[in-house]
Amino acid sequence: MEITNVLVANRGEIARRVFATCRRMGIATTAVYSDADANAPHVAEADAAIRLPGNTPGETYLRAELIIEAALAAGADAIHPGYGFLSENAEFAKAVQAAGLTWIGPPVAAIEQMGSKVESKKMMDAAGVPVLKQLDPAEVTADMLPVLIKASAGGGGRGMRVVRELSELTPQIEAAQREAASAFGDPTVFCERYLETGRHIEVQVMADTHGTVWAVGERECSIQRRHQKVVEEAPSPLVEKIDAMRASGPEEAAERNHAGPARMADGQSMRARLFEAARLASEAIGYEGAGTVEFLADEKGDFFFLEMNTRLQVEHPVTEQVTGLDLVRLQLQVAAGRPLPARQPEMRGHSIEVRLYAEDPAHDWQPQSGPVHKLDIPGTLGEFTVLTEPGVRLDTGVVDGSVVGVHYDPMLSKVISFAETRDEAAHLLASALQRAKIHGLVTNRDLLVRVLRHPAFLAGDTDTAFFATHDLEKLSAPLVSEGDEQLSIVAAALADAAANRRAARVVRGVPSGWRNLPSQPQSKSYESRLTGKHEVRYRLTRTGLEVEGFEGLELLEATPDLVILQVPGERGPVRRRFEIARYGDLVTVDSPLGPVAVRRLPRFEDPADQVAEGSLLAPMPGAVIRVGAAVGDRLEKGQPILWLEAMKMEHTIAAPAAGILTELNVSAGQQVEVGAVLAVVHSEDQE
């Protein structure tokens, strides 16, 4: 069958990714969009776009009947589900085929069999794939702890909870069920033994309708937050290490690996065993198309089946980079009934992907919303395309001016490096991220750079407890030092002064603000989210620039967008270049010292803008789903007061210090805007 027009039943980056391959293949494209996504890039890029009235996933992207109607209205003859939403919904796949449309995905039966993580593990066990024992939540006892609660109908960290205290099991199951229902429309959850440290290894499979099953290559996705992947790479450093030890000789490998000789003498590498298990899993359900078999591995090379994702994965670009394959192209060809190529490609080089999120890792990973004024990753060689030389690839759902809302996942982009070696790929990606211009929202960029440069990461010593092991507070610290931040803020003040001079009125040839006598220093005030208020006091004289707190600073150039300073140092002066941009009261400064973003403060503060000490402000727009305290309650530090739902996740608002709850301004079901005063806690210090 021929595919001529593909509707992508998804949004953002994945829709743009599928559209890019369709354009290269000469296939027309159709987008669907919610009201919140009306101006999104994927809508503008499609040949046709159909509105799904509403904003939330339940109103829009989870409405199978609306999506099928949209495909028929636009003349599409195939539907690609992307990932998330309805991508692993067997009823949706069945309805697509019943409407006479081509389903770009696996058979309905395969989705059904793998759609329940409970049943799929039983099936994999029977097929000879190693699995972790399933636990019935009602039968979990204290000696089984810790356990991991997981959503049966989906992944991506939605509905996952680690429980270490038996008293927390019931409330955590209830919270997981709410998240699972919101994200996948199915509240079913289950438990399994939780391994505190482990390696998350997955195998990309591709199968055609003619009986060929490829295990294309493995990826490692061990660095995670809230059970959602943050850094992904191919090939896996663990697999490379285990197989290198095996190749050095059975006895030596067994000694270095603390394993018995029989483990290393069985003739099979870890990669071969992973690939065999992935093929067994695929063949057991008659799989077709692209899919991923996920395993949890230990440092000895043992692994256990976690789940099979019957769709394309977020992290598929790293596999594309090391194989040269376009996996979306293969998906389309398999759906059209064509066989896979005769030869499976070998892996080459190394690729690392990071997920750039609009979130604040230093404050419990709080998601952010608002405008993305600028997103510029230097050294980008291509978007949504396989690189043939070392460089950076960008797969993004946003462009300059995009707005990140509260209804969907806060991922901005996937930034992917490709190089001959792992070290080179890590250094290349870290450098590109540090030099990137990301204006408008707080992101996890600084954390990603620190991870990529961390000695443990470079040594390949990564596991699912990476952030807990290596001090999240240090990893999420700003790339710029406090001293360099102050210097960047001086540059911002000088650029603002240049902008003021350029905009100032000139009366009879005399610029506004000119004085013929010495005066007090000029003063400009800014606020950094990280280090608080900064006042820059400076004077431009005949002899040069004078800045309070900085000796010997020399101004070489100052325009509204660029400041060049000569900075004194122990071994002589160094020239520093600062690029400045403004968006209302937001001022951004980009330099090799590190990115800085500050808010310009007014000369006189309006008392009406002040909030009472102890006020808890809404960190994002969202809905109050539960209230756990009442006015007059005495609270302990960290005690939950209420829960917000935003971006498909629950967020706890807790007491910042021990004290008394003196105000509670919201109730369950209420919508709140960012910055709204939710509650006030009168701390013991205030008392």
General description of the model:
This protein is an alpha+beta fold and 687 residues long. Among the domains are: 5-104, Rossmann fold (3-Layer(aba) Sandwich); 349-477, D-amino Acid Aminotransferase, Chain A, domain 1, CATH 3.30.470.20; 482-502 and 520-600; 611-683, Beta Barrel (OB fold (Dihydrolipoamide Acetyltransferase, E2P)). The protein has 19 helices and 42 strands. Strands 14-13-10-11-12-15-23-21-20 form a 9-stranded mixed sheet, with helices on both faces. The N and C termini lie far apart (75 Å).
Q: How much is the average pLDDT?
A: 90
Query: What's the CATH class label of the domain at 349-477?
Result: Alpha Beta
Helix and strand composition category: alpha+beta
Q: Judging by the overall fold, what is the CATH architecture of the domain at 349-477?
A: 2-Layer Sandwich
Measure the end-to-end span.
75 Å
What count of helical segments does DSSP give?
A: 19
| Helix content bin | 25-40%
Q: Mind telling me the CATH superfamily name of the domain at 349-477?
A: ATP-grasp fold, B domain
Which percent band covers the strand fraction? Answer: 25-35%
Number of strands: 42
Largest sheet: 9 strands, mixed
What is the CATH fold-level name of the domain at 349-477?
D-amino Acid Aminotransferase, Chain A, domain 1
Radius of gyration from the alpha-carbon trace, in angstroms: 27 Å
Neighbour order of strands in the largest sheet: 14-13-10-11-12-15-23-21-20
List segments where confidence is low: pLDDT < 50 over at least 5 consecutive residues. 252-265
Shape verdict? globular
